[in-house]
Amino acid sequence: MANLKQHKLGWIGIGRMGYAMAERLAKAGCDISVWNRTRSKAEPLAGSGATVVDHPADLAACDIVFTMVSTGKDVKEVLFGANGVMSRGGAPGMVVDSTSISLEESAEIRKLLDTQGVKLLAAPVSGNAKVIKAGKLTVVASGPRPAFDTASPYLEAIGRGVSYVGEGELSRIAKICHNVMLGVVIQNLCEITVLAEKAGMQRHAFLDFLNKSVMGSMFTAYKSPALTNLDFHVTFTPPLLLKDIDLGLSSGRTYGVPMPTTSAARDQVQTLIGHGYDQDFSQLLLLQAKASGLEVKAENVDMSDGLS
């Protein structure tokens, strides 16, 4: 078993995802210091063993600094800004960035870090805060192989697995492909669920069958309670899904890959937004039902989301 106290860790970004990820590292016994723009959001982590610091610059002496913030601009600010990690002349050995940013931004940040002798591991994740708490987050990473080998025990501690896909920004492409599939699968799942209901089945009964079949997945199980009970609290918004689908289609054009199924799913997500659905992307079920002349109601059935 890896020694999780071998390296001094820094963590920047304590949103819903960042908090849950940093908490798992702290509870695993890692030597971890954390910073967040709003300090009060980070302070509860002290109860799990983390040290809360006042500035990103306070993390410069760490071996590895993780960043999980909102945008590429935010990543650059916390690393290179006035009180950024690099602002006082010190620098960590490595930055592991799990922020959702473009390939171009990632390459720019990698180049800036390289000038200061700092390695970048691009490490997007698949999941949300509830998935993290269940220990089922997955990570895809790219960058120098030695950097990955050093960071992988900590990434493994955050979730259930980490995949190395190569050098540079390849993990960003992997995450785009992942989220494109998310859009296609949720659209198809809503289509067949509405078809089953209009033919006379209850949604929970159909989804129970699907999840027990070879076509079931962690994703279909996770979304089944939402589709059954019309619980559309936000896990991922339609505009964010549309952004990722557009990134996928753009990459398809760049590499000469036709993506007709993705294009059709993109139109449905755009239509969802145009009709004013602004909660979770699984509201595609409501759009599909409306287009099918079906009035759907919450079934109020207690269903497992597959995470317990």
The CATH class of the largest domain:
Alpha Beta
Distance between the termini: 25 Å
Average of pLDDT: 95
User: What is the CATH fold-level name of the largest domain?
Assistant: Rossmann fold
How would you summarize the topology of this molecule?
Elements (H helix, E strand, L loop, with lengths): L7 E5 L3 H12 L3 E5 L3 H4 L8 E2 L11 E4 L4 H9 L13 E4 L5 H12 L4 E4 L2 E2 L2 H5 L4 E4 L3 H14 L2 E4 L5 H29 L4 H10 L5 H12 L8 H18 L4 H15 L9 H8 L17
Parallel strand pairs: 1-2, 1-4, 2-3, 4-5, 5-6, 8-9
Antiparallel strand pairs: 7-8
Helix pairs in contact: 7-10, 7-11, 7-12, 8-9, 10-11
Tags for this model:
three-stranded mixed sheet, 2 domains, 308 residues, six-stranded parallel sheet, single chain, alpha/beta, N-(1-d-carboxylethyl)-l-norvaline Dehydrogenase, domain 2, Rossmann fold
Mind explaining what this structure looks like?
The protein has helices at 16-27, 39-42, 72-80, 103-114, 129-133, 145-158, 170-198, 203-212, 218-229, 238-255, 260-274, 284-291; strands at 8-12, 31-35, 51-52, 64-67, 94-97, 119-122, 125-126, 138-141, 161-164. It folds into two domains: 8-168, 3-Layer(aba) Sandwich (Rossmann fold); 173-291, N-(1-d-carboxylethyl)-l-norvaline Dehydrogenase, domain 2. The longest helix has 29 residues, at 170-198. The strands form two sheets. It has a six-stranded parallel β-sheet with strand order 3-2-1-4-5-6, with helices on both faces. The chain has a three-stranded mixed β-sheet with strand order 7-8-9. Helices cover 48% and strands 11% of the residues. By secondary structure, the chain is of the alpha/beta class.
